[in-house]
Amino acid sequence: MIVRQAANVLDILEYFARVKKPATLAEIADHFGWPRSSTFNLLTTLAEKGYLYEPRPRAGYYPTPRWLVMAREVAEVEPLPGWTHALISALSAETGETVAIAAPAGVMAVFIDVVESAAAIRYFAKVGHRVPIHATSSGRALLLQYSKDERDSLYRKIEFKQYNHTTPISIEAVESELRTSIERGYCQSFADYSRDLAGVAVPLPIGERRLSVVVAGPEYRIGDKTAAIAVTLQQFVERFRAQ
């Protein structure tokens, strides 16, 4: 369930991140197809709370640095160790693919750090991207860090949708895939969630935090290289964790 008013605020922030310039009420309303009156109320509220301002008279609204200040204060509470970004940067350079660190968010896995591939055809992913925890390699690498009771409790909340013909659509199918992942030493997915996308992931627990790291890209490029990518992934994790 999405609370529309909250989603609209986030949509506005993402909009400014894309256009990188002030926008008038009319431009924002027209872009989203929102009524002018509700757009006015939303922008006025954000301005009164100190999150939007008008850089120049009648030139439109733009976010204030308050967003950045708040984000920094939040991030400072549980920051990722510096070596984790160096890890995914090195992995992306080595494999030529997009690499991300994922964390659990209920029945989803959310990317909390991403380095995209430089290839023209690649897995496009940003920080905040969410994927089903049971239907992706990054998510299953998180599930491996759960106890059986914790997984059973989570399964009761999952809607087992058929995203593709390879999607595990039952508790038994997910548990079978987890057992196979333990045996092979890594998690993998071939279009289980996103069409034509393959991923290789391993758990990346840090303290009490359950995290995973995934290398993902087009199936045709990763293909039969999953085992080799997994070896590289595990070697890099060991090397950077030891630093």
Q: Strands, helices and their partners?
A:
Blueprint: H1 4-19, H2 25-32, H3 36-48, E1 52-53, E2 62-63, H4 66-75, H5 82-95, E3 98-105, E4 108-115, E5 130-132, H6 137-143, H7 148-155, H8 171-184, E6 187-190, E7 197-203, E8 212-218, H9 219-222, H10 226-242
What share of the residues lie within helices? 40-55%
The share of residues in extended strands comes to: 15-25%
Multimeric status of the protein: single chain
Task: Specify the overall morphology.
Answer: globular
Give the structural class: alpha+beta
Enumerate the strands of the largest sheet in spatial order, edge to edge or round the barrel.
Answer: 5-4-3-8-7-6
Number of helices: 10
Topology as a string of helices (H) and strands (E): HHHEEHHEEEHHHEEEHH
Radius of gyration: 21 Å
Low-pLDDT segments, ≥5 res: none
Question: Separation of termini?
Answer: 42 Å
Give a quick account of the main beta sheet: strands, pairing sense, barrel closure: 6 strands, antiparallel
Condensed summary:
The chain is an alpha+beta fold and 243 residues long. The protein has helices at residues 4-19, 25-32, 36-48, 66-75, 82-95, 137-143, 148-155, 171-184, 219-222, 226-242; strands at residues 52-53, 62-63, 98-105, 108-115, 130-132, 187-190, 197-203, 212-218.
Question: How would you sum up this structure, described in words?
Answer:
- With 243 residues, the chain is of the alpha+beta class.
- The chain contains ten helices and eight strands.
- It has helices at 4-19, 25-32, 36-48, 66-75, 82-95, 137-143, 148-155, 171-184, 219-222, 226-242; strands at 52-53, 62-63, 98-105, 108-115, 130-132, 187-190, 197-203, 212-218.
- Strands 5-4-3-8-7-6 form a six-stranded antiparallel beta sheet, sandwiched between helices. Strands 1-2 form a two-stranded antiparallel sheet.
- A hairpin with a 6-residue loop joins strand 6 and strand 7.
- The longest helix is centred in the last third of the chain and has 17 residues, at 226-242.
- It is globular, with a radius of gyration of 21 Å.
